[in-house]
Write a structure and sequence with these properties.
Blueprint: H1 13-24, E1 27-28, H2 39-46, H3 51-54, H4 67-77, E2 85-88, H5 90-102, E3 108-113, H6 117-126, E4 129-134, E5 137-138, E6 141-142, H7 145-151, E7 156-162, H8 174-187, E8 190-194, E9 217-222, E10 235-238, H9 241-251, H10 260-271, H11 273-297, E11 302-303, E12 312-313, E13 316-317, H12 323-334, E14 336-337, E15 339-340, E16 350-353, H13 358-375
Parallel strand pairs: 1-14, 3-4, 3-7, 7-8, 8-9
Antiparallel strand pairs: 2-10, 5-6, 9-10, 11-13, 12-16, 15-16
Length: about 375
């Protein structure tokens, strides 16, 4: 089922923006993940013996991930179904393998706009017909799921979504999720479910994983966003075993497997996931309130819809129709990194991350306000 490349991969504007700037900033309020952990913090929170690291043998791991890591992922995220689990190099590898395995030139795929670039650009490179569902949201809730459901028809090969959504933080209800799954089931479409922010929710419980109930659903998870371990590069894909077997054939030409060292650290992290998640979610909750107060103080220069999940928002800078030059100036003159909305097709907006240290967020917002105050009456 794997297809050859029909077109070269388009440039990922988000990654191009962050590639060098990410390492040159003094205050980063651009991200979509929580504050990073150190290895020592992870081992302490997990109560992991350091002897595990000293006795590790650097042999190759299994194509689907080492048995102990897959079992840990299955217990935590897959209802104990180890056969549904493939451990991946972050969720990005899982999305790549799934798209290249299941999509063919001419297939129709429905994606949200704005949205994370990976599913849509991968589908485009394969030669798929990409249809964009323009996501509407208010007060953290997606307001037009019915329009998404209506777009799914006999010609739909796949639907790719993520809730809570990146970059708005909006989400859907369990009833709306069921309606989406039912619509996919009615036409035999695959559902690519990016669950990177599943457990980063504030006012409602996490949504159930559709891959445990719908055989044509694939869900993708990661330790990068809610668990503070982006540099570990460990994620997972939950899917039907036959789909995973096809993904492995492609993986033989990409990464082969994970490192046993990252698998060991990831296993300890997943076995003690609540210990990692709880303090970061508490910090994000406080930071979200801080951003809300800041927006209220600087209205009408800034408008936003408070996110219901995740640690990023997409506020509008109302006096600035194109935020890319503004973001460049903010970094150059104030040392603050944000993502311009052009990376998501929303040029009057910025992606603002609030998952990091509170002091950094407070500084970043103050410097952002300082520059905004000089731009309030004119365009840049």
């Amino acid at each position: 089922m794997t297809t050859a490349e029909a077109n070269p991969l388009p440039r990922a504007r988000l990654e191009d923006w962050l590639r060098d700037r990410y390492f040159d900033t003094s205050v980063d309020i651009s991200g979509s993940g929580v504050q990073d952990y150190t290895l020592g913090e992870v081992l302490d929170l997990a109560g992991a013996p350091t002897a595990d690291l000293r006795e590790l043998v650097f042999r190759d791991s299994h194509s689907l991930g080492g048995p102990e890591l897959r079992e840990a992922i299955a217990r935590r995220f897959a209802g104990g179904r180890t056969d549904l689990v493939m451990a991946t190099q972050g969720s990005s590898e899982g999305i790549y393998l799934a798209a290249r395995t299941l999509l063919r030139p001419g297939d129709e795929i429905v994606v949200p706009g704005p949205g994370y670039h990976s599913p849509s650009l991968l589908a485009e490179s394969i030669g798929c017909r990409v249809r964009t569902w323009e996501l509407g949201h208010r007060d953290g809730a997606v307001s037009n799921v019915d329009e998404l459901v209506a777009m799914i028809g006999p010609g739909t090969r796949a639907v790719a979504v993520n809730f809570p959504h990146n970059p708005t933080g909006a989400t859907i209800t369990p009833e709306e999720q069921r309606a989406l799954v039912d619509a996919c089931d009615s036409v035999g479409a695959y559902l690519f479910w990016d669950g990177a922010f599943t457990h980063l929710t504030y006012d409602r419980p996490p949504l159930p994983d559709p891959a445990l109930a719908y055989p044509r659903a694939l869900s993708f998870g990661t330790l990068s966003k809610g668990y503070g371990l982006p540099g570990l590069r460990v994620g997972w894909c939950l899917a039907h075993p036959e789909v995973l077997a096809e993904c492995v054939r492609l993986r033989d030409y990409v990464s082969l497997a994970l490192s046993p060292l990252t698998e060991l650290v990831a296993r300890h992290a997943i076995e003690h996931a609540d210990a990692l998640l709880a303090p970061r979610l508490a910090q994000a909750t406080r930071n979200r309130a801080l951003v809300g107060d800041w927006v209220a103080e600087h209205t009408p220069l800034v408008r936003w819809e408070r996110p219901a999940g995740g640690v990023a928002a997409l506020p509008e800078l109302t006096a600035i129709p194109d935020t890319e030059p503004f973001a460049e100036e903010l970094l150059r003159t104030h040392g603050v990194l944000v993502v311009p909305g052009t990376c998501f097709g929303r040029p009057g907006h910025i992606r603002l991350g609030f998952g990091g240290p509170t002091n950094d967020l407070r500084q970043g917002l103050q410097r952002l306000a300082d520059l905004l105050s000089t731009r309030g009456g004119r365009h840049v």
